[in-house]
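ok so i was messing around last nite and threw this chain in just to see what happens. nothing serious, just curious
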Amino acid sequence: MFSLVPLPRPRTAWLLLAVTPFALPAQTDTREALKKPAVARAITADRLVRNQRVVVEGWSRSLADTQITDLTGRDVSAVLAPQTEGRGVSVALPTEPFVMKPRGIHTVPLLETGATVLPGGLVLPLVAAPDHGGAATAAWFRLAVSASPRPAPWLEKGGDYMTLLKFAVRLSDGAPTTLHLPQPVEVSLDFDGMTAAAIAPFTIDDIGLTHEKTIELHFRPSAPQAKLRIRSTITDSDVVIEALPRLELRPERSAVLGFGLETVAVVVERLRPQGEPDPVSSATPVDVQVNGPARLTAQDVSIPSGGARAEFSVRSAGLGPLGLRATAGGLSATAAVQQRFPFGPLLAALLGGALGGYARRWMKGARRSASARHTLEGAVVGSIAFVAAVLGVGYLHLPAALAATEAGAFLTGALCGFAGVVVLSKLSSPQQPEA
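result:
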C-alpha cells in the first residue's frame, strides 16, 4: 500500500509516507525527489494507513474550531476522525498531506520581534524507518509574516503610512530540513479599516529566505484598528497593522505678502493614525523652526494638557519660499508658505490713492490746474496708507487681513489719498495774517 524510502542518514533520518508524489524508486536520490512539486490528491478512506494514527503536535484549538481539508480543498474531518491528545490532535494516518486551520477568521497581533506564525498550516505525515519502528509524526508548514518598521511611520511626502511586509513559509522545529513544500502556497491580501493600493496575489514556492516575498505597503487607516486580511491555501487570518500618531502643520494660507506686510497663522495638531485628534496627557512643548526670511510672533509654543493642538503666527520678512518645521513629543511635521511681492494690493492702493487725489479737483475752490499734482500726491499717500493699514497702524480700523486684499487696498488708498491731498493742500497754502 505504501513504500518507505530512507533519507541519507538511514539510522536516524525520518521518511515521508509513500504518497504518490514522494513514492520514489530505490535508485532515485531522495533530496532531489523531494524538490519535485506534489500533485494534489483527495484524501479518501483507501488512502489511510490501516489502524495507525498520527499526532499533530502544537494544535491547541478545540475540534469544533478545527477545519481539516485535503489539498483539493475538500473537508476530510470525517475521514481522518480527529481526536484530542495531550500534545495536540491525532488523526488517522493518511498517505497525503492535509491542511489544518481554524474554522473562523482570527485576528492576530504581530509580535514585537521576529515573524508571527499564523494559525493553521499544511501538515505532512512522517513515519520512522521500518528497521527502527516508532510512531508516526507530522511536520508543519506554516505561513509567517513580519512588518518593519512597526508601528508604521507617517511619510509626509506621500501622505500615507509605510511598512515592509515579509511573507515566508516556515517548517516546524525538529522536522527534517530536507523537506519541501508539497505544492506552492497561494496568498491574497485585502484590507479592513484602512485604504491602500490593491496588491496582486502571489505564491510562495518553498521554505527558506530565497522564497520569501516582500511587499511595500502604503496605507492610511480609516478605523481605530487597521487589519490586513490574509487569505491563503493553508491559513486565513487578519493581522493588525499598527501605525504611529502623527503631527500635522497647517498654515492658514499658502501665500502671504512679503517684506513683513503680513502674518500667517499656523496650527500644529497631534493626530491618531485614522485622523482623529490625539490629546496629550501633559503639556508638550513644540519646537518651531523657520527656514527663510521670517520670524515667529511668539517664542513659546506648547500643546496644553488634555489638548491636541497649538497655534502660532509667523510674520514675513522678505520674499521667496518659507519653510516651517514643528517637533513635539518625538513627532515632526513640515509645511511651506510662499512670500510674494504685493503686486495686486499695492497696485490697487496706488490706483485708489490716485483716484482719491484726482477727486480733489471737484472740491469748492480747488484749482483744476493742480489735478496732476493732486493725483500724484494721492497715489503716494494711498500707498503709504496701505502699508500702515496692513501693519495695523491707521485710523480706518480696517482688519489687516482685509486691508491686504486688492479691494481693501483700493478702499484704503482712495480714502486716504483724498484726505491726504486735502491736508497737504492746506499745509501748502499761504497762511492769512491774523487781524
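not much to say yet. Residues 14-240 form one domain.
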